Every structure is written in C-alpha cells, then in structure tokens.
From TrEMBL:
Topology term for the membrane: Lipid-anchor
UniProt keyword terms in alphabetical order: Lipoprotein, Membrane, Palmitate, Transmembrane, Transmembrane beta strand
GO-annotated molecular function: efflux transmembrane transporter activity
Family as reported in the entry's similarity comment: Belongs to the outer membrane factor (OMF) (TC 1.B.17) family.
Source species: Kingella oralis ATCC 51147
Lineage summary: Bacteria, Pseudomonadati, Pseudomonadota, Betaproteobacteria, Neisseriales
Origin: domain of life: Bacteria
Alphabetical list of Pfam families matching this protein: OEP
Protein name as catalogued: Efflux transporter, outer membrane factor lipoprotein, NodT family
GO CC, any one term: plasma membrane
Amino acid sequence: MPKRLASINGFQAASKCNTIGSLKIIYGRKIMKPVLNYSFTAVALSIALSACNLAPKYEKPNVELPSDTFKYDAQRNGEQAFQAASLGWQDYFADPRLHALIEIALKNNTDLRTANLNVEQVRAQYAITRSSQFPSLGANGGASRSRGDVESYNAGLGISAFELDLWGRVRNSSQAALQQYFSTAASRDATHLSLIASVAKAYFNEQYATAAMALSEKTLASYQKTYDLAKVRHKAGVISALDLRSQEAMIENAKASYAAAVRAREQARNALELLISQKIPDDLPAPLALSKQFKIRNLPAGLPSDLLLNRPDIIAAEHTLKAANANIGVARAAFFPTISLTSTLGFGSSQLSNLFNSSNKTWSYGGNLSLPIFDWGQRRNQLKVSKIEQEKAVVAYEAAVEGAFRDVADALVARAAMNTQYDSNLAQQKAYNERLRLTTLRYKHGVSSALDLLDAQRSSYSADTTVLSTQLSLLENLADLYKALGGGLKRYSSDDATTQREIKAAKTAVQTSKQATAQ
C-alpha cells in the first residue's frame, strides 16, 4: 500500500502506510513440525501496519495575550525577587497553623478525594483501551464422549478476534483515552490548588474575626473607663447628660461590634471545618498575627505571561483538545474496512494419554473482514460530531488561557493598589492613635471636651478596624494570586507524586512505541 492521499466524505488525510504485498489467510490442522511462531503472527502484522494514522496533526492553539509580561508597580523594599508560581505552598504561606490545616484538608477533603477517584477511574479506562492494541491470549481445553464410546480430548492456546489496526482506529482510541487521563489528572491538580487557596482564605477570615474580637474587647474596656470617668464628671456637673449618653452609645456600639466579630469567627470556623472535613484539632501550632502573615509582600515588577501555561486548568484543557483530535482519527477510520484475526495452537486426540504427543499438534488460523457500505450517514455524522468536539475544545482552551490571564492581571493590579493602601492605613492608624492618646490626657485635665474625646475614640477605632480589614484583603489576595499563578504544585502528597511518576512513565511508553513503529 503506497503513500496516498485519501479523500473520504469531504475530508482528506495523509496516510503513510507500510507496503504490503498480499495477505493470505490459511486454514490447517495436524501439522508435523513446531509452529509456535504462527500464534504471534498477528503481533508482527500489527506492527507492520501501524504506520497508518488518519488523525489530523495536532497544532497547539496560538492564543494572543495582551503582552508578554504582567507589569505593575511594586515596591521591593530590598526583598529578594522571586516567582510565586515556583514555590510550594509550605514556602508561600508563613503560618505553621495554616500549614497543618492544609495538610489535613489534602487528606480529608471530599472534593479532592472524589477527584483522586476520578483519576483512578480514567487510568483504569485507559488501561482497558490500551489493551485493545495487543492480542488477547486464551487457553482452552475439553473432553467429550459420544455414542459408541468415542472419546475426544483437546487443549490449546489461541488469539481471538484481534483487530489489525490498519487505519489507526485502535491506536487513536488509546491515545484519546491517554489524553483524557492526563486531563483528569490535571483537573485533580486544579482541585488540589483551589482547595489550598480556599483553606487559606477561610483561615485568614477566621484570624481576622479573632483579631476583630480582640480589638472590640480592648476598645470596649477603654470606653468603659471613659464612661466611668464621665459619670463622675456628670455628677459634678462638669459634663451634660448628652455627653454621658454619647459615651453609653459608644459602649453599646463596641458590644455590637464584638458580637458581629464572634458571629464572623464562628462562620469562618464552620467554613474551615467543612474544607478539612473534620473539627479543628486542639493541638495545632499557635497562629501568627495577621501582620506577620505577609511572608510574600512584593513580587517582581514583571512576571512572564507564559507562567500561565503551568496552570492545571490550562493543562487539562490542552489534553482535552488532544483527546478530541485523536477522536477525529477514530471517526475517520470507521470509513475503512476492519480485519480481525483468530489463531489457535494446541493438541487433539482420542486418547487422553496421547494428547500431548507431537503427532497430535493442531493449529488453525482465520480472519474476518468487515467493510462498511451504507449506514444512513451514521459514520459521516459521527465524524462531524468529532470535528465539532475538537473545535469546542479549541474554544475551551482559548477561554482557559484568556481567563487565566485576567485572573492574574486582576490579582496583581489589586495587590499593587492594596500595598499602597495598606501603607497609608498604617500611617493613618498611627496618627489617630496618637491623637486619641493626647485627647484623652487633655480630657482628664479638663482641656478637651467630651465631644473631642468621642471623636478621637471613633477615629482611632475606625483606623484600627481599617488596618485589620486591609490586612485581610491583602491575605485573601495572596491566596487568589497563588491560585491564579498555578503555583505551589511542586509539593504533593505521596499519592499525588505517585500519579505524576505514573504519568511520566506512560508518556515514556508512548514515545518508545512511536519510535519502535518508525523503525
């Protein structure tokens, strides 16, 4: 079969096939010399015919991004520049308590466990599909007695209905299953990444609520002291009842803020326990203060946009596209005839004691040809469906890349703005706290009015709350950026590492098979 250009129902595919002179199917029985090699003829023929492939050549979609790098303003403050995407989550997040919670989540989380099971399922499905590329060897034996005390015994090995992969149908089916396996594994990695970010954000919210509770308690105690002093001054006629009632309102406001912080903390703990699928253990390391969580404050002024190609959702989308590409080859091969072979080698005798004598060797060899003629457009429409699936996969890949670029760009822009905002909030907090200190002294000595003190207290509390809120926003942005950059996947649990080794081994096996075919 020389090189040719096949045109079938509107599609063209370059078919490079090995030259074969003829194929003769021979039936026989009772041979006189060893013929073990006949049982493996199908294997040799499969290798000889495996050069045909009707799948289109895979071309990675070229997605145009706005620029080659993400650029934003960032103050380095002498810190070493690095790429967040190259760090494991243990290095990315600073809090050892958070580390422990993430470890628990990676072991217990139901979504991640389901994703792991999906990988196992698709891995097994790939193994089933791949096995179709090789002959299935079976053993059989039997004994019978018929009228007249005629006995018959037989035993043998055989290959049943092994399809010669002339057009790459079986091989492309196996390739599609392999790419689907890779895609599922990458989707599991995306779940892994998203879980880490979700645990981090839930933890930061819990710590923020705890800090807000502490601030409310501290503020309430300060308001109570001021109120006690105001009552004394009110009895002495120094301040009016209006000033006293204003102090009481401040106390009630602090109590309400404390209750809101308690509610927020309990809700955050519930969310965290849902993510780790258990109660938060009592023996975890002590948490770091919010202000000490910023292990990574500043990033390089420019990050290459090709970092996005490391995101597991983009990797999954590309493998899905490759699977759809291989399925086109499967659909095209359906237009061509299929040939399957059956071969047996064994012994047959009328006496059990002489069954395995060399003179009783038997063999048989057969083939089956299936040629499609008319199916009311079924194969043509199946090919159309496969092409549409491939086009949809291209669109999904482009959408994944564009969405990833937007995620990173938004996170970096937000981080740059929040860094500036945080520095201003810290300066404002320092100024308002100093103002409160001075106003309190002046109030105690009768220089400042109760109204001045109330205003200073409100401003100081508002500044403290704003700093906490900005710290939470920065930490949530830190988790969002970790997820957006697709980083931190270098450190897996043992099961994840095993899967990666198996994927690498599978890829090596595929490459070796291709090289053997080319030779």
